[in-house]
Amino acid sequence: MPLTALTWDAERKEHTTKPGDVTANYTFWFTNTSDQEVVINAVRTSCGCTVAKLPVTPWPIPPGTNGPIDVTIDLRGKSGAITKSVTVESSAGIKSLLVSVNVTGGPAAVGAFAANHPAMSDQERVDNMQKSLADRQVVFKDAKCATCHADPAKGQVDGSVIYRGICATCHDSPLRAAAVTDLKALKHETDIDYWKYWIAHGRVGSMMPAYALSEGGPLNEVQIQALAQYCLTVFQPSATRASQVPTAITNAAVSTPAISAFPIPTRK
Question: What is the largest CA-CA distance in the chain?
C-alpha cells in the first residue's frame, strides 16, 4: 500500500501565540483516498511537551473516510520559535508532520537541549530525528551525530560508561522523544538475550539503530555484553528493580555467543 493512501490537509502547521497562552493547539486532517482500509497504529512526538491524540489504537480508516489528529504543545517555560515533529505510523507507512509555534511575550529562551548541545538548534534536532526515521544508522554515518552516538564508546568495556556515553543522550534526556523507550518505566521482565538482541540489532522502522559492528554500529561483542549486563541489572520493572549498579564488565568476565545467534525476544 503506497504512503499516498492517506492525503493530508498539510504537512506542517504554524501558530503564533497571544500573551498568556499556555498551549498551542493544532489539528491535522487526513483522508483515505485509496480503495483499501488503512490502519493507524500509533502517533509519536519528538518530545514529552508535545502530545498527539488518536481516538482509538489501532484506528481503522475505511476507504473514502477522513479524520483528525489533534496535537498540543505545552508552552510553559518556553519562548521564541519552536518546532516539533509528529510521526504517524500506519499500515501505509510512516508519515512525518511538523508543528511550529512562535511564542510571543518575551525574548527567545534557550531550551534545555540547546543548552546542553549549543551547536544544535531545535530545528536541527527535528531534522536529525527525521533523518533517523529514514535511516536509523545515520547516527553512525554522520560525523557530527557520531560524536554523541558512537565516539564516547570507543575503547570502553564498562557497561555503565557505555550507557552514559551513547545511550543516555536519547533514553535519559528530559526532551526524550515520545518514540524513544523510557527504560525506567518497563512493564515486563527481561533477560540478557533480550538486551543483547535490541542493542545489537535495534528496531527496524524506528529511530533505534543497530549497534553491532556487523551491522554498521560502533560496538563489538564484548561491549554489547557489558552494556546488556548493565541494562539487565538497572532497568527492571519497578517491583523487581535491583538497587545496585553493576561494576565494570571486563574482557575476562565476558563469554558470549556470536551476535547472529542471539534469539529474537518475544517480549517488547
Answer: 62
Element containing residue 233 per DSSP (H, E): helix 221-234
Question: Domain span at residue 81?
Answer: 3-134
DSSP-derived secondary structure letter, 5: G
Q: Are 60 and 39 in contact (CB under 8 A)?
A: yes
What amino acid is encoded at 43 in this protein?
V
Percent of the chain with pLDDT over 70: 74
**pTM attached to this predicted model:** 0.50
Grid cell listed for 55: 481516538
- What lies within 8 Å, CB to CB, of 21 at 6+ separation is 75, 103
Please indicate, yes or no, whether residues 124 and 170 belong to a single structural domain of this protein: no
Average pLDDT for 187-199: 92
Helix (H) or strand (E) holding 210: none
